[in-house]
Amino acid sequence: QVQLVESGGGLVQAGGSLRLSCAASGFTFSTYAMAWFRQAPGKEREFVAGISWNSDTTYYADSVKDRFTISRSNAKNTVYLQMNSLKPEDTAVYYCGAGSIYPKKTDDVLYWGQGTQVTVSS
To answer: Environment class of residue 69 by beta-carbon count within 10 Å: exposed (0-12), middle (13-18) or buried (19+)?
Structure first.
């Protein structure tokens, strides 16, 4: 069965960095676009960053552009999110998702991971 397992979340001070990983199994990872979303308490799940199947294209929400970097290793069936210069407003549960088109909305995602908590203190 399809599984997406996020890891790497935790508590970090404002201005710090974290790298999230999402390990995929149960589907042909290398043929899917991948993306990261996040959801804070009481808020809707929102798009963070996306990447094409071969890493040819990346795209970001304006709120994280120039601070976050998405990447992937098809050999390892893993997608990453490097988060630098973290702000308290980045605090959320972060989810990875897979889509047959570039995921940018929650409805574009076919498969979801369980999420990993990121907390940025001030």
So the answer is: middle
Label the pairing between strands 58-60 and 46-51. antiparallel
Strand ranges, E, within 8-110: 10-13, 18-25, 33-39, 46-51, 58-60, 68-73, 78-83, 92-99
pLDDT in tens, 66-91: 999 999 999 999 999 999 999 999 99
Q: Determine the Cα–Cα distance for residues 86 and 18; give it in Å rounded to an integer.
A: 8
Size (the chain), residues: 122
- Predicted confidence (pLDDT) per residue in 38-69, tens digit: 999 999 999 999 999 999 999 999 999 999 99
Residues 24, 78 contacting (CB under 8 angstroms): yes
In whole angstroms, give the CA distance from residue 94 to residue 92: 6
